[in-house]
């Protein structure tokens, strides 16, 4: 590339990204011939009186040549991590290789350094797939677990070389989606750009993992690249298997069929709830495990609360179909929850699993077991259906040597280290552990994994222990929550010295105000509020 007759200075950082001094319209054909597919302008149009080609002219010329173009202006004296975050977002979407320019090239280079992407395979489409990238620690998954454990590791080992592998450009705070479905939380406040949350010191690789090769300390990305690691942390979450309910995918978001388990559908839940005046509302829950085991029934409670307050509940037939044998997995919370089921005059049908939906005709089919254990398929009509899909481990994990017989990443339940691969740890929804799959569980697990991974590297005992802690704030009505906190075996692990089975306004405040703040400001930044492991709590 450098041998081309260019009228500007160019520096190639890697196969995917280069920076340059000011370019002109006449330079674009040369840039295209050199193999570049995208151009980023970091120089503000008004800089130095605007006596240089502007972004609008460049954009039009790039479009005519088939080059992608983005305008990311930056004052050379006021660069910040936000510029790096913005560049990460652009590089996740723009075809590579990319050329960024400013007046001298220094500003573009500094933004690239702020992006924490030097030498990382940010966008390997069509280039460099045969090169092996190596990192000390690779984290697969950039959700709650991935960001939290990366921050906890960097808190303990600031110089650790960490890569986070995740294809998503957005990061979601999913616990609030139930509140969005009740019209009391803005869905826009539950999502932020992934690039803005990657901790300083970690490198983000915006790709999906197609294969785990733990016998060779490698992972393979969807684009064919191989990534080598010394330590691996597996936390890609789980997969919502919508396709396992016949007809569901085709009717979601219309025909009265919704689900708070998707960011774009939670507002539709509230639309249905607020518009329903009479008829039949069905709520479903699949077999365990699922993320946030209480979320399916929380959708029912909050909907019924609205209808009760509006004087409509007597005109609406409510039915909760649960594939399990009990309303909730921890016995202590069943009696108070049943009181709300009776308060809302809802019909509870246990061992009833949603298997098929016909949205246009407003029909749903459930496989229901009778007292003798005999299953039969029952057809039910509805005016509103809140459906929750079966949930499984991601294919790359389920089909790998890391999986147990059910497809989950098989780890020791206390140390969270893999039972067969000593340099592999896991946390979050993908784990084989028997805890509730909640953000609260991840908050505790991140500390255990960070502590134990570094202890393992140092040849020390894995003293941090995970006790199975999970929390499910059960929103039984607007303004009141039963704060269910428990560990392995259903052992109650309340944070506060109050009866945890009682619905409280203080717990509502915790759910709606405190916990979102804790998530964004503390948990994802490695500030481990109330997150110490059982061992470290005993031995400060």
What is the strand and helix layout of this fold?
Blueprint: E1 10-14, E2 17-20, H1 28-33, E3 38-41, H2 55-65, E4 68-71, H3 81-93, E5 98-101, H4 106-114, E6 132-140, H5 144-156, E7 162-165, E8 170-172, H6 177-180, E9 191-193, E10 202-205, E11 209-213, E12 218-221, E13 226-234, E14 239-240, H7 248-251, E15 257-258, H8 266-275, E16 279-285, H9 295-309, E17 316-322, H10 334-343, E18 347-350, E19 352-358, E20 363-369, E21 375-381, E22 384-386, E23 391-392, H11 395-398, E24 424-426, H12 439-457, E25 470-477, E26 480-486, H13 505-522, H14 534-538
Parallel strand pairs: 2-5, 3-4, 3-5, 6-7, 6-13, 7-10, 13-24, 15-22, 16-17, 16-22, 17-18
Antiparallel strand pairs: 1-2, 8-9, 11-12, 12-13, 14-23, 19-20, 20-21, 25-26
GO molecular function, one term: quinone binding
Keywords: FAD, Flavoprotein, Oxidoreductase, Quinone, Transit peptide
Protein name: Oxidoreductase (Flavoprotein)
Write a concise synopsis of the structure shown:
Helices cover 26% and strands 24% of the residues. The protein has 540 residues and is α/β, with parallel strands linked by helices. It has 3 domains: 10-114, Protein-Tyrosine Phosphatase, Chain A; 135-238 and 393-538, FAD/NAD(P)-binding domain (3-Layer(bba) Sandwich); 242-389, FAD/NAD(P)-binding domain (3-Layer(bba) Sandwich).
